What we know:
Shape: globular
Strand content: 5-15%
Order of helices and strands: EEEEHHHHHHEHEEHHH
Number of helices: 10
Oligomer: single chain
Amino acid sequence: MGDPIYDISFPHLGIFIRNLPGSFRIFGFEVAYYGVLIAIGVFLAVLLCMRRAGKTGQNPGDYLDLAIFGVLSAIIGARIYYVLFSLDYYLKDPIQILNIRNGGLAIYGGIIGGFLAGFFVCRFKKISFLQVLDTVCPTIALGQAIGRWGNFFNREAYGGYTDSLFAMQIRLGSASGVLNDEIMDHLVSVNGTDYIQVHPTFLYESFWCFVLFLLLILFRRYQQYHGEVLLWYLGGYGVERMIVEGLRTDSLRIGSTGIAVSQVLSIGLVIVSLILLIRNRNRLHHHMGQSQNQSTKENDNGI
C-alpha cells in the first residue's frame, strides 16, 4: 500500500491537508489540539462575559468564579451523560469511566452540568441566574464554534457517506469515529491508500454556532426580560443539533431503539423554548396594553 498523499481533504473544494497532527509536545508533555481549542473558547467566553458584565451593572469578577465551577461541572456532566447512555460498555470495565483521555464527553451533559453549577453559584452570590445566563449563552455558542474544530484534529464525530460540496475525506487508518457499512461501501482509493468520505458535521455545527453567537449578540439589544436570550440560544442550538445529530454515525442511542438521545432532547428544547417565547411575549403585550389603558383612563379623569 502506497503512502498517503494527504491526511484530510475536501476534494470538491480543492483543499488537501498533509501531516495534520492531533497533538503536539511541549516540555515533554503531549498536548491535544482539542484541549487547546476548548481552552481558547473558555478564555474568550470569560473575557466577553466580563466585558458585558461591566456594561450592564454586574460584577465582572463573578464570572471568574462562574467559569471555574462551571467548567469543572461541565466536564463532569459531559462525562456522566455519555456514560449513562453507554452503560453496557462501562459496566464491563468500570475503571474506564475515569479515562476521559480516550474520549466520551457529550455536549448536552456539559451544558447541563455548567448550568447547574451556575445556578448554585448565583444562589450563593445572590445574583440573578437568568441575567447571568443571558450574558453567558452567546459566549457558549462561540465556545462551541471554536471547540468543534477539535473533532477535526481528532478525525472524529463525522457523519455518514456523502458526495456533497463539503464532503470530507479522511485516511481510513486515522479515522477515530464510527464507521458504518455505508461509509465502508464508498471508500475512495488514492494512490493505493483508502479514504472515507463523510459529512464534516464538526464544520456544520461550528458554522451554525458562530452564526448563532452573532445573532444572539445582536438580539440582546432588543431583549425585554431576563431569560429571553437563554431561550433563543436553547431553541437555536436545538434546531441545529436536531439536524446534525441525524447525520452523525456516533450518536448515543436510547437503548436498542436506534433513536438518538440528543435528537430527542433537541426537539424538546425547541418546543419548550418556542412555547415560552410566545407565552412571555403575549404576557408582555398584555401588561403593556393594560398599562396603556390605565394611563388613558387617568388622563380622561384629569389625573
